[in-house]
Structures are given as structure tokens and as C-alpha cells.
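2024-03-11 09:14:02 INFO receiving multi-entity request
2024-03-11 09:14:02 INFO entity count = two
2024-03-11 09:14:03 INFO echoing inputs for audit
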Amino acid sequence: MSMNLLGPTLVLYLLVGLGVAVALYLSDPPRPSGERWLRLATAVPFWPFYLPILLARPTSLPTAPEDDLARTLAVVERELDAAQATLEEWIGIPEEQQQRLEKLREAWAAQTERLREMDRLLARPEYAGVEDQPSPSTAPRVRQSLTARQQNLERLRQVRQQAEADLLASLAWVRELASRIHLARFTDASEARAEELLAALASIVETLTAPHGSPEQVYAIKKAE
Amino acid sequence: MLTQTNPAALDALPYAELAAPPVNEHSLLGLVELLLKAPAQLDAWTRDSSRQAELVPRLLTLALTSFAVFSLVLVLLFHAAKPEAVPFILEHWSRSAGPALALGLAYPVGLVAATGICLPTFYFFGLLAGVRISVLQVTTHVLKGKAATAVLLLGLTPIYLCITLGMLIFHADDMAVSAVLTTGLALPFLAGLWGVRSIYIGFLGLADTLPPERRCRRTCFLRRLTVAWATVYTIVTPVMIWSLYQNLVARLG
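2024-03-11 09:21:47 INFO inference complete, emitting structure
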């Protein structure tokens, strides 16, 4: 006895389509009603094309590099907290130094935000794609503009790399100082040594824009994370 | 007009204004313009995860609209032709509404549904070649190829309509009309070569996500996989359209 599977299969297919359409309706950002209904109408019969949109939505945001940086920053801030607590208990931290350490955290946050802005800009398709090469028939003024544009973008990428290296070097230096503070505390070092380390820690904010760390330090912190 | 523009003024224009024409990507006509004038820009957008979710429905709508217009023209021409001139491949064709509706639905639905069937294959081929790609990105790439096919088909349709209508009006030989109508049935596949080219170029552009030391070898592999996918798709699509037509004719009478 032959079985007609077309009807039940179509029903199942359209049921899944209805589910996808409902999910799309619930998760879609506001848009003109005509466009919205057209999307829903095509989502029922052609749901295999809409399913990737629903599945990709949470992960399609370009957050991975930012998250890496945020995680690194969070780890170093925890180490700085621990070092500050040790120093507070040991010699007490003067108000002025407390403020400088607070400024250091603000400088890190500002630098991180600046990096993110540059990343977002450089990730735009018009900047992230293959670089346009001027053809021999291109007019001289246009060729000049094109070359200047490429140079500017290259410079922007270098500025971004330098900013990241500065930030990572600063973080690496803080981690090193924090470990020295703990070491000094438990090897019964003098209070003068503790004050010296605190001063070094607090002075990082003034030199954040100038790289402290060697490439090895930068590599070490990246590797550590 | 470009020819009336002062050359000095043209030289002073920023390159971006000359290279990428400003288009409204949110409209279907804007998307058509982009496919014709700046396909590289569209390729770049298919790689932008923030645009993919917006591009997929628009490309799909463009493809469906264009295929629907083409199949409507095809149905009208078949309707106007003598029954003896209708190609033998269209079994059960008559001038009643059932077969016309079946043919009108089989083309747009079949062409797009075949893409949906081949979509997972394309994704796995990409993974096999080592390309860093998401399912959504594959969907966008494939629909971009489908939309390119649709645009070319829409461009060919008036020419085809003129030729066939001319033959029908001047009572050309049945064999000749049958040959032209058969060509009409195959026209989406000829236009499909343009879509395959679009997918090929876009997909090979993803080779820059491969590790530099393996890029050359892997790109060659990717090229072969893309051609293999195009072959599979070219086989699946006519079978899909024919099966849909047969089933719909059987049900719609």
C-alpha cells in the first residue's frame, strides 16, 4: 500500500514556518508595517532562509575583541584592588594617592572606549575590505585622493595598534607592581619600600600614553589572558 | 551628464563618490542598482554581520518578485501558443487555469526552494575548506547570487518576450515556436550562470579568512568546492521545478 507523504510533510513544514514567523515577529526591531508583513509572509514558506537570522542574532554582534579587552581589564582591576587592600592594611594609602589610582582606572576605561570606537570604525565594510588599487586610467587627482585615503587608513590602524600596546603595557606594569607589593608585604620589607611601590603604582596614570612595556610584556599579558 | 562635466571638477571629486554610487539599500530598486553597479560593495555588505539580517529578506523578495514576473510572462506566452507548439516536457498542459497556476508557482518557488535545499551543503563545503563563515553569511551569499540571477532574468525577459511574441504574431512554424518556448523554460538556468559567478566571486573573497600559510592551497580547494556546489545546485533546481509542476498539475487539474 503506497503512502502519500506529501500532505503531512507540507503541514509539518508550514507549522515550522509559522513558528519561525512568530519568532521573527517577536524579535524583529520596529519597521514599517508593510515591510514587516512581507517578511512574515515570506518567512512561512521560506523559513529556512529566516532561521539563520533568528539563530545568529545573539552572536552576530561584534563583541568578541571588546570582550577580550574587558576581561583583561577586569582581571587587572581585581589585582589592583588586592594590591590596594594590602597597602591600605600595611601602611595606609594617602588620599592624594587614592585619587591618582582612581584616575588610573578612569584612564583605562577611556582608553578602552577609544579602542572600541576605532575597532568599530575599522570594521566598517568600506574600510575592512580589500584596498582599492587605482587603475592606470584613473585621473591624477582621484589617484592622489585614493592613495592619501589608503595612507590615512593605514595610519589609523597603526594608531589603534599603538593605543592597544600602550594600554596592555600599562596593565602589565600594574600586574608586575601588584605582585611586587604582595612579595614585599610577605618578605617583611620596609615601609619605605612599600611607599616607593605605591608611588610607582600611582604614577602610571601620568605615563599611560607613553608605552612602559616592552613587546615581551605585551605578549606576556596577552598570553596570560 | 558625465560627458558635459568639467574634467577639472571631476578630478576634484573624492574617489568614494565616483566608485560607490549613493543607493537606497532599503528599497528593491536600490538593491538592483547595487547589484548592477557596485557588486563589490554588496559583497562587502554580505560580510558585515550587522547588515546580513536586513539583506536576506530583501534579496529573497527581489528574487521572488523577478521570478514571479518571468513565470507570468512564460504562462501568458504558453497560453497564446498553439497546443502543438508547447514543449513535450510540459505534460498535461492545457489552457485551463490549473496548469497555468502550476507553472506560475513552480518557477519562483522551485528556484528559491532548490537554493534552500542546497544551503546546508554550501555551509559544510565552506567549513571543509576552512573558511571562517556563519550560516547567516552563507545564506546572504547564496541569496545574493539568486538575486543576481533574478536581475539578469528580468533584463532578458523583455527581449525574450519580443522575440516570442513576434513569432506568435507572424505565425511562425510550430517547431520554431516550440524551440523558442523550450528556450524560455531554460532561460532561468542560463541567467543562473550569472548568479553562480556572483556566488563564486563572493565566496572566494572569503579566502582572506584562511591562515596565510595555507591560503593558496585552500583557495584552490575552495574553488573546486564552489564549482561542485554550483553543479549540485544546477542539477537539483530543474528536478525541483519539474516535480513541483507535476505535483501541482495533478492537484490543481
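2024-03-11 09:21:48 INFO post-check: The CA atoms of residues 13 and 45 of chain A lie 8 Å apart.
2024-03-11 09:21:48 INFO post-check: The two ends of chain A are 65 Å apart (CA to CA).
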